[in-house]
Amino acid sequence: xxxxxxxxxxxxxxxxxxxxxxxxxxxxxxxxxxxxxxxxxxxxxxxxxxxxxxxxxxxxxxxxxxxxxxxxxxxxxxxxxxxxxxxxxxxxxxxxxxxxxxxxxxxxxxxxxxxxxxxxxxxxxxxxxxxxxxxxxxxx
Length: 140
Prior knowledge:
Layout: H1 2-24, H2 30-46, H3 50-70, H4 73-90, H5 94-112, H6 118-135
Helix pairs in contact: 1-2, 2-4, 3-4, 3-5, 4-5, 4-6, 5-6
InterPro entries: ARM-like, ARM-type_fold, IFRD, Interferon-rel_develop_reg_N
Family: Belongs to the IFRD family.
Protein name: IFRD2 regulator
């Protein structure tokens, strides 16, 4: 009983931190947004958070879209990586497909933008490939 309560408390703490990072993605400071993306990247890469993300996927997708659209270089690269991890967490069901479908045009746009940084373009190419493999319903 005591271990379960401790685990529950740790999980709530992790979720609270994730919520803070998601809120920070809306910050005016590029450095703050990059730090939040870095933290989200680490969290999504190290723990399965499907249920938590399921409820917040639209909010996170909107924030990532904003980072990809308005950000530069490192921020775009991190947003592409976080998007890949979000797609992995959502899986091949309708939720993953929805995330991919909503951000696919933006990924292609950054990828084909010759003025975007090489790291941003590479990250968007990776995100496009991975998300397409995981979540694209259309075989083409």
